[in-house]
Specification:
The chain has 4 domains: 1-77, no CATH class; 82-125 and 189-253, no CATH class; 135-183, no CATH class; 274-396, no CATH class. α11 (283-292) runs antiparallel to α12. β15 (368-373) and β16 (381-387) form a beta hairpin. It has helices at 4-7, 35-48, 86-97, 108-117, 160-170, 190-195, 197-200, 209-214, 227-242, 274-279, 283-292, 297-308, 312-318, 352-362; strands at residues 82-83, 102-104, 122-123, 125-126, 136-141, 144-145, 154-156, 179-183, 187-188, 217-223, 247-253, 255-257, 325-334, 337-346, 368-373, 381-387, 390-396. It is built from 14 helices and 17 strands. The strands form 6 sheets. Strands 5, 6, 7 and 8 form a 4-stranded antiparallel beta sheet that branches. With 403 residues, the protein is an alpha+beta fold.
C-alpha cells in the first residue's frame, strides 16, 4: 500500500533530523526540540491562538514499535543506493522461457513471471550495524567532503585503491594527493548479499577450480515464499556477473506452519525440535522451554496455545476410554502450506477407524480425498491425500511420551 504522499503526489518533506530533532528554516521556539516535545508545543501554540479544535482517537492507525528497542518507528527520508533491474529481470524471464532454468511445480512459474515482469528498482542499502558494507566512496578534496546528494561525487570499487583511481580520473585538475575517500557506512541489503552466494563461495571473481567444477549447480530446494526475494535475485546476479544461471532446477517446497497458520520461526517460539519428535517430550516440558526463552509474554501465550491446539481437549475427551494416548504431529498439506498440529493418536490396532476419522476431520474444508492405508501399529499410520488428482503421502508417528 502506497504512502498518502505517494497516492496524492504530495511533496515529500522531512521535518526531523537523524537525531529526532525538529528542523526548520525559520527561527522559532520549536527548532532543535525533540519530536515528542515539539508536538506538545505545537498543540499549546494552537490553543494559545484559539486555533485548536479537538483531539480524537484514531483506532484504525497502527503505531509501529521496534521489537528490539521498544521505540516508535517513524519514516525518515534518506538517500539510498538503487539498482535498475530491468535488463537483469528480462534475462531471468528468458532463462525460464527457454527452459534453461526449470521451476517445480510449474504453477510457481506464474509467480516468477508476475514478479519479474513488474520489476521495480531495487533499494540495496540499509542503515544497519551489520552486513557487507556498500563499496561506494564519497570523494573528499583537501579534507572537505563534496556534496553527498550529487551522484557524480561518488565512486565505487572492489578495493579502496580501485575507487581512488576512479576519483582521481574524475578530477584531473586536482592534485592526486589532495583526493581521499570516505566510504558510505550503509550496508548491503541481505537479499543482495545472499544473491551472490552461489558463486561467491566458489571463489568468484577468480577462476577457481571450484567455480569450474561446481558452478552452475544442479538443484536449488527452497520455500515458495522467497522465490522472488532470493531465487530471482540469485538468477539475476548470476547471469549478470557470470553469464550463467546459478542452477538448472528450482524446487519450491510447501511452507511449514503452526496451528495458527504462522511460519515456523524461532522468534515466535513455534518450532519443534526434531530430537523431541524422535525421543519424545512431555507437554509441560515442551511449554516450559517457551518460558526460558526471550519471547514477548504475549507471544509465549500464543505459542503455548498453538502447542495445545483448540481441538485437543475434545480429542482427549473423545478417546478417554483408550489405555494409551500419545501426542503426535499431523501434517495437513494445502498446496503451498504444511500445517503442523499437535493432536492425538492411539496405539491400538482395533481403533484404526477412529484414527482415520480423527485425521479426516482434522483436514477442514479442503477439496481432497483422504484414503486410510492400514499398517501394523504402533509403528506408524500411513495416509494418502489426493488434491485435484495429485497424490501426496504422509504418515503419523506415535511418539514415546504419554499425556
Amino acid at each position: 500500500m502506497a504512502f498518502i504522499d505517494e497516492r496524492y503526489q504530495l511533496h515529500k518533506h522531512t521535518a526531523e533530523e537523524e537525531k529526532k530533532k525538529q528542523r526548520t528554516k525559520k527561527k522559532n521556539n520549536n527548532k532543535g526540540m525533540k519530536r515528542f516535545d515539539a508536538r506538545e508545543a505545537v498543540i499549546k501554540a494552537l490553543e494559545s491562538k484559539g486555533l485548536f479544535i479537538e483531539t480524537v482517537p484514531n483506532p484504525g492507525q497502527k503505531l509501529p514499535i521496534c521489537e528490539r528497542s521498544g521505540n516508535i518507528v517513524e519514516p525518515l527520508l534518506k538517500p539510498q543506493w538503487w539498482v535498475n533491474c530491468q535488463s537483469m529481470a528480462k534475462a531471468a524471464i528468458d532463462a525460464v522461457k527457454n527452459k534453461e532454468l526449470l521451476i517445480f511445480p510449474e504453477i510457481s512459474e506464474k509467480e516468477w513471471f508476475y514478479w519479474l515482469e513488474n520489476i521495480q528498482d531495487w533499494c540495496i542499502s540499509r542503515q544497519l550495524w551489520w552486513g557487507h558494507r556498500v563499496p561506494a566512496y564519497l570523494i573528499v578534496i583537501d579534507g572537505k567532503k563534496t556534496e553527498d546528494t550529487n551522484s557524480s561525487n561518488w565512486v565505487s570499487g572492489r578495493t579502496y585503491e580501485e575507487a581512488l583511481a576512479k576519483a582521481q580520473m574524475k578530477f584531473p585538475n586536482v592534485a592526486k594527493d589532495s583526493i581521499t575517500l570516505d566510504q558510505d557506512p550503509d550496508v548491503l541489503d541481505t537479499w543482495f548479499s545472499s544473491g551472490l552466494w552461489p558463486f561467491s563461495i566458489m571463489g568468484w571473481p577468480e577462476k577457481t577450480k571450484d567455480m569450474e567444477l561446481f558452478y552452475p549447480n544442479t538443484l536449488l530446494e527452497t520455500g515458495w515464499d522467497i522465490l522472488f526475494f532470493w531465487v530471482a535475485r540469485m538468477v539475476m546476479l548470476g547471469i549478470k556477473l557470470t553469464g550463467k544461471v546459478p542452477f538448472k532446477h528450482v524446487f519450491c517446497h510447501a511452507m511449514v506452519r503452526d496451528a495458527h497458520g504462522r511460519k515456523m520461526s524461532k522468534s515466535l517460539g513455534n518450532v519443534i525440535d526434531p530430537l523431541d519428535v524422535i525421543e519424545g517430550i512431555s507437554l509441560d516440558k515442551l511449554q516450559s522451554r517457551l518460558d526460558e526463552g526471550n519471547l514477548d509474554p504475549r507471544e509465549v501465550e500464543k505459542a503455548k496455545a498453538g502447542q495445545v491446539f483448540n481441538n485437543l481437549p475434545f480429542l482427549v475427551k473423545f478417546y478417554c476410554f483408550l489405555n494409551h494416548l500419545n501426542i503426535t504431529i499431523m501434517i495437513i498439506i494445502n498446496f503451498k502450506n504444511m500445517r503442523l498440529t499437535l493432536c492425538l493418536s492411539c496405539t491400538h490396532c482395533i481403533y484404526r477407524k477412529q484414527i482415520f476419522q480423527m485425521v479426516y476431520l482434522s483436514v477442514e474444508r479442503m477439496p481432497l480425498d483422504l484414503h486410510f492405508v492400514p499398517t501394523p501399529l504402533p509403528v506408524k499410520i500411513n495416509f494418502r491425500i489426493t488434491i485435484n488428482g495429485n497424490n501426496m503421502f504422509g504418515c503419523l508417528f506415535p511418539l514415546s511420551f504419554l499425556l
